[in-house]
Specification:
By secondary structure, the protein is α/β, with parallel strands linked by helices. It folds into 2 domains: 120 residues, Rossmann fold (3-Layer(aba) Sandwich); 126 residues, Hypothetical Protein Tm841, Chain: A,domain 3, CATH 3.30.1180. 40% of the residues lie in helices and 26% in strands. The chain contains 10 helices and 13 strands. The strands form 3 sheets. Strands 10-9-8-13-11-12 form a 6-stranded mixed beta sheet, with helices on both faces. It has a 4-stranded parallel beta sheet with strand order 2-1-6-7, sandwiched between helices. Strand 11, helix 9 and strand 12 form a beta-alpha-beta unit. Helix 3 packs across helix 4, helix 5 runs antiparallel to helix 6 and helix 8 packs across helix 9. It is globular, with a radius of gyration of 18 Å.
């Protein structure tokens, strides 16, 4: 192993095969399902987990990886030859992963002084985080230094944007992740709320009266982003709603040409909070 290694978390919700192809190491979150402790995308697989959630009487809880999880990951990468690591995490305003990774960095600096580690708070989540990890990995594979990779990440963070809708905000509300969108919780039946993330916190972006209108609002959202930012890369996200994500993709790409796009499923650790049926997108400047 040479160059810069990229570490992120299961919450990046990377498309199938991407982590392996781009040599991204990801650390799984924890999910507490009753008395069971599961690992996101390891022992908690999306299909079976979302099927269970549909009829669950009690919402599972999640926990970020601890310092020990990151310490083990960084040490393993060093043993495989890594001498520089960019560790890329979801918003610190919604998870303790960033702080845990910082703690692990502090511990490993004494143990392995030859290993350089930069821990980055993306202030984003899902494939907004995932895109940043992917672009960092591509730069690393092209031979960029750790400083160059971090500079690229810092430039990308402000361009990453998310918008999504769900049949209910119940899961976000119960899980305490509703952020500044609390006023949408009591919306009338058949209202489809639109939420996003600003400065690392969930915010309300509006509400519509049908999924079709919600998707049209997302098309407009992408159109405005393309005007402001230029060419875009998009990821269409869903939780047990692939057909809906494909429908959204078709609507967006009938109107806007994208540089690169994927359909990806939210990891169960995120789906706990958004709930089955969630559909949306994450975009980043190309």
């Amino acid at each position: 192993m040479t160059g810069v290694s990229i570490v992120t978390d299961s919450t990046a919700s990377l498309p199938a095969g991407i982590a392996e192809n781009l040599k991204i190491t990801w650390v799984p979150y924890y999910i507490h399902q009753g008395k069971q402790v599961l690992r996101d995308l390891v022992t908690a697989k999306a299909e079976s987990f979302y099927a269970w959630m549909e009829n669950a009487n009690e919402l599972p809880t999640t926990a970020s990886p601890g310092p020990g999880d990151y310490l083990e990951t960084y040490t393993t990468l060093f043993e495989k030859g890594a001498r520089a690591i960019a560790s890329i995490h979801m918003t610190s305003k919604g998870s303790g992963a960033y702080q845990a990774a910082l703690a692990a960095k502090g511990l490993i600096e004494e143990k392995i002084p030859d290993l350089q580690i930069e821990v980055i708070d993306t202030l984003n989540v899902a494939m907004c985080q995932g895109w940043i990890a992917m672009e960092a990995a591509r730069a690393a594979l092209a031979g960029a230094t750790l400083g160059d990779v971090v500079e690229k990440i810092r430039a990308l963070i402000p361009t990453a944007q998310m918008i999504q809708t769900a049949d209910t905000l119940r899961y976000l509300h119960l899980g305490g992740r509703i952020g500044k969108a609390t006023h949408l919780v009591g919306s009338l039946l058949n209202i489809k709320p639109l939420i996003g993330m600003r400065d690392g916190v969930i915010v309300a972006l509006g509400k519509t009266r049908s999924r079709q209108k919600a998707y049209q609002a997302m098309v407009d959202f992408v159109d405005e982003a393309a005007i402001a930012l230029g060419p875009l890369k998009l990821a269409y996200m869903h939780a047990a709603a692939k057909a809906e994500a494909l429908r959204l993709k078709e609507m967006v790409e009938e109107r806007i040409e994208t540089v690169e796009s994927y359909v990806a499923e939210l990891s169960p650790a995120l789906g706990v909070h958004s709930g089955p049926g969630t559909t949306g997108l994450c975009l980043i400047v190309a």
